Amino acid sequence: MKQLVQYFKTLSDPVRLRILQLLAGGEMCVCELEESLHMSQPAVSHHLRLMKKTGLVLDRREGKWIYYSLNGHKLLAMEEKFDEMLASAIRARLSTGLPAAPVKTEKGPVCARREAAKANTQRKTS
């Protein structure tokens, strides 16, 4: 769970999401990212450093240039963890007879647990 929290914190910044989009097109050096993002080298490097720390991007040095690329394995692993977490929670909810999402009525959302308890009570008294 801690890893997922850090992953989403890192992705919570629009600049880092844009960097992911750009790197999805292939490896880029910092100067190319600077140009695409209209940001200074230190600002771009700061975002890349955070993304590298979380494992979302990989880097390689070629002379004095550093090239960045997506860490596809890490991104897929985090996606799987997130899916597992949500899928297990939804399966657990459905197994208790509760709907997967809140029930909405004319008066607004209805508490599914309260409605399920009411239905059980009505069945027992009928």
TrEMBL record:
Region Disordered: start-end pairs? 102-126
Keywords (alphabetical) are: DNA-binding, Transcription, Transcription regulation
Query: Matching PROSITE patterns, A to Z?
Result: HTH_ARSR_2
Please give the InterPro entries that the UniProt record associates with this protein.
ArsR-like_HTH (IPR011991), HTH_ArsR_DNA-bd_dom (IPR001845), HTH_MetalResp_TranReg (IPR051081), WH-like_DNA-bd_sf (IPR036388), WH_DNA-bd_sf (IPR036390)
Give start and end of each HTH arsR-type domain. Answer: 1-89
Q: Where is the composition biased (Basic and acidic residues)?
A: 104-117
Keyword Ribonucleoprotein tagged: no
Q: NCBIfam families this protein is in?
A: HTH_metalloreg (NF033788)
The protein's name in its UniProt record: HTH arsR-type domain-containing protein
- Origin organism is Desulfotomaculum copahuensis
